[in-house]
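Quick start: read one record
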Amino acid sequence: MSAGHILAIDQGTTNTKALLVDAGGAIVARASRPLDIRFPQPAWVEQDAEALWRSVREAASECLEKAGHPVLAGAGITNQRESIVVWDRRTGAPAGPCVVWQCRRSAGFCAELKKRGLEPLLQQRTGLGIDPLFSASKLRWLLDSIPDGQSRAEAGELCAGTVDSWVLWNLSGGAVHACDASNAARTQLFDLRRLTWDSELLGVFNVPRAILPEVGRSSAVYGETSADGLPSGVPIGSLIGDSHAALFGHAAFEPGSVKATYGTGSSLMTLTEEPVGSSRGLSTTIAWWRDTVRYALEGNVTVAGGAVQWVGELLGLSDPATEAAALARGMTDTAGVYLVPAFAGLGAPYWDAGARGVICGLTRGANAAQLARASLESIAYQVRDVFEAMQADASSQLPELLADGGASRNDDLMQFQADILDRPVRRNLSGDLSAVGAAWLAGLALGIWKSTDQLASLPRQQDLFIPRMQASARERRYAGWLEAVAKARSTPAV
């Protein structure tokens, strides 16, 4: 093994984390910075791209200071996906906001694409249906809203990229404009099979090729660090989207495992041997690209842990997410109360952008604790929706669910998840699994670890939740959930 540590940067929606991982796979230091989110109009979600980069620099600097500034063997980057940034190639200054993955501002443009009958083309090339979640329509909005945006893009004066690209640009001092295949696969501009930006799709969205980053492997040396306040000359050895990195961090290196990352939203992902088309609202995507490309099926839940946060804010709690979860603790039944958190539409498997949140089943005796519990249960119900679609598309039995992410630390949620799925839930106790996956991929590129077998043998802390709910209760509760979803939908279920 090589000496030194890997600095792993996990740039998420609500915070940025920095971790130091040693050659034994242990986390030796960590730091984080919170991030503000702006909602300038209903269903619009954005962030300050400069503040995003500043959070990376500050978290990384604090992490290194905590560890006594050890020798770094390399760095790895994982990131919130689909969010998009446009910046000036000469100055590096953002030309607009970072339009966040949750944002629905491009819904009208997406509706027009559907009317033009373009969804089959997009699904065949990119594995993705038409939805404002994905980056290309957000980029189209940015180019339309930036003064002279289109002409500046065509002249090569602007750069555009997913968040991994923005962080890499800044971390390398503006020397490298690149992204990895897992992030490119979420833009709707990238051909999954040819592994290249697709000229026909660029034409659909009227995006100049000159604005886009080069696409590379998830585990590869992209350049060296050259940023104010951080060590220079450190090889940058990985780029990967956060959900993909979490799957890698689970050591789920072969088909047959499915993981759910529980964050602001949630992502379920399982490896497949080849690109598998879905008729059940799932996405075909690239899990990662090392020596070969590994494909996956994915289902995205737009609002997961964010539902608990919302209830806490609605109730006026001082620490919304924590106190709402505490309210729900000990409640074993919502007495028929359901919350469908379709605040920005419904993601997989429904893909109903017009759906809106509902609370139903209220009686005079309903109380705040039941509503808090309903927000927690809504996460597990949405995961079951996707899990069942995934099992059908994968044409194989998925024996358990691997769990990670901040909300997975809630024991009540994990037990209810096992109960409502009727599957064991194996929770990874690391709260930093995406960062661990990025560190592993960087370590492979830099020779710290030689193989995935070696990674799989590294110690991992896990625990197991076994289903214990009776079948009749499980199906009665899930049927109530499906009735609540029907009330939230903008269009009838097919």
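The chain has a mean pLDDT of 92.
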